Amino acid sequence: MSPALRLAPLLLLALPACTTFVVPEDHDSDGGGSSSSSGGWGSTSSASAATSSASASAGSDGTTTTGPDTTSTSNDPTNASGPVTSDTSGAPADCDFPTTIEPLFAGCSCHNGGMPPKGLVLSPGTAYANLVNVDSAEQPGTPRVKPGDPTGSWLVTKLQPMPPVGDSMPPGGAFAPEKLALIEAWISAGAPTGAFACDGGGGGAGSVTIDEAGPLEVDIGEMFDLDVTVLDGQGQPVQGATVKWSSSSGKTLYVDAKGTLLGIEPGTSEVTAEVDGVISDPVTVTVTVNDPPAAPFADVLGVLTTRCGCHNNDMPAAGLAFNTGADAVHAALLGPSVQAPDVDRIVKDAPNQSYLFQKLTLDAPTKGERMPKGNAPLEAEKVQPILRWILAGAPL
Length: 396
Description:
This protein is α+β, with helices and mostly antiparallel strands. It has helices at 3-11, 97-101, 103-106, 127-131, 154-158, 177-188, 297-307, 326-333, 355-361, 380-391; strands spanning 51-52, 63-66, 95-96, 195-196, 207-210, 216-219, 223-225, 228-231, 243-247, 253-255, 260-263, 267-275, 278-279, 283-288.
């Protein structure tokens, strides 16, 4: 078991109140600031049981993202019946619900007030009864917590990126992988009120395999989903593995936290998956010439205003505001970057020469760091309209 997980009960901090935008102190953001909001639930980078998404470290020109494969989300309408026992005989008494799991929810004002979203109250002393074997109001037929089945628990699904219904939680934020791993370990142990093993009693990854055999082809502006299988040293599926994806050439091929590929420009990239330091064999992906349909600026503006909180307040980072109206935002995007004055924020027909696009897609943009700052990289489906809009000449 990782030392970080054993120490987690001592280090856990309560989640801040919902929907809080944080402006970076250094205003390092011409392309998508951070909307660091944390509410009842958060998006995460923890995988499901049998199949997971993954990635290895990339070079300065590559991209690396972290996230789960949520295709195994359960819609099983069968709820576990009967009382949940707190008997965990034989399991190390490393963690328990009152001191390990409940503090994760204590700081979420959205679910501790008088009008909690979806009627879910998570105040101390009530969270357990409102989670375990209670049907989700958002996904009827799926319990919020199904003892013994993290992938069949709506709580886990909502803490991961891109749930099948609604938005991941907290809005615009990212739930820490080590915290989600604790919740999954608790559910795997039967969601007891008493002691359970912090690591879930499972082993690390023994092998990581990308399910789709290469070589693959992806057209410019189009997407393609990859999956991985993660097994332990005994050949059993790894429960709750933290996984990453990476593309060796981020300017050629974008890969998001779910393993979704997006072709950017003609060329070849190697995609790998990593779990617990175990790296998959690479899959070669060739991006082919294509003239994708144009995306309207309204779609681009929708992505920027919902995912870039630092640019939607009275003191926008780098003076770039996304809430000033379409005409003003369009004019600002076609001008030079404040951080890199010799590079325009948007260069028509040239995504990789556009500072905004670099900041949103590369681990090492021309200057500064990747955006949204402090949050998970954009999903491929959010990058796609920006790419297609630029390729079409960035029209208003």
